[in-house]
Design brief:
The chain is built from two helices and 13 strands. By secondary structure, the protein is of the alpha+beta class.
């Protein structure tokens, strides 16, 4: 019985030896460097290099700079169809034509306001404002007619300015009216409720255009035969000093 187990043990050992010999021969023939000597050697693997990354395609988008996509316009941006492009200052057209020529100030191109003054007493200020499109000239002095008077009062000669009063559109000229004597020396005093202002032309001897009809206070104004006016002035201060 013991001889049978011994024979089987030898047979198994011989078979194992034959297998190991075969593996050793095969490993040597394959050149894998695997040697079997009792226990298998650790398998050494060589890391394969990863495929090289493709070089960036500069013609495609998404590289950090906004490269134009295929079919995108490379020139200046254009407005969409149906939209209007505002004209630049260099291409905007300026209306042609010359400014209106200066004209004479009169009722149709001015607005006249009459306002009694507290100082000087017994005085009224006439303010004429250019409401037209053209510059106008206030020649001479206002020819005023209070109520039903048949004549206009005289002008204070010393009030004549050095130059003709010129009003650009929106500007105003002034004249003052001495309504009555402050010392009571005047005569034929009476109260009037209406006023008409006429304008002189360049020669100063005739009235031109239409007259103005400024509104007087509801109680009217008191005038006497000392009534007189100043020449038209460029400033209010020059008008009220007489």
């Amino acid at each position: 019985m013991s001889s049978l187990r011994t024979s089987r043990t030898r047979l198994a050992g011989a078979a194992a030896t034959a297998v190991l010999a075969t593996l050793s021969l095969t490993a040597c023939q394959d050149g894998t460097g695997v040697h079997v000597a009792g226990t298998p050697a650790a398998v050494t693997t060589t890391a394969h290099s990863a495929p090289a990354a493709p070089s960036p395609d500069t013609s495609s988008a998404g590289t950090g700079s906004s490269a134009p996509r295929a079919g995108a316009a490379t020139g200046p941006a254009r407005p969409a169809a149906g939209t209007s492009t505002p004209a630049s200052a260099s291409t905007a057209r300026v209306p042609s034509g010359r400014p209106d020529r200066p004209v004479t100030c009169e009722g149709s191109n001015t607005r006249t306001v009459a306002a009694p003054l507290n100082r000087p007493v017994n005085h009224m200020l006439l303010t004429v404002t250019n409401t037209g499109r053209a510059t106008c000239h206030l020649y001479g002095y206002p020819a005023v007619r209070f109520g039903e008077a048949q004549s206009v009062p005289p002008v204070i000669e010393d009030s004549q300015p050095q130059a003709v009063v010129t009003l650009a559109p929106g500007e105003s000229g002034y004249a003052s009216v001495n309504l009555s004597a402050t010392d009571g020396s005047g005569s034929h005093g009476h109260t009037v409720n209406s006023l008409t202002v006429y304008f002189h032309g360049r020669s100063g001897n005739e009235s031109v255009g239409t007259g103005a009809h400024p509104v007087l206070p509801a109680k009217g104004v008191y005038v006497d035969d000392s009534l007189k006016v100043t020449y038209w002035q460029q400033s209010m201060d020059d008008a009220v000093q007489w």
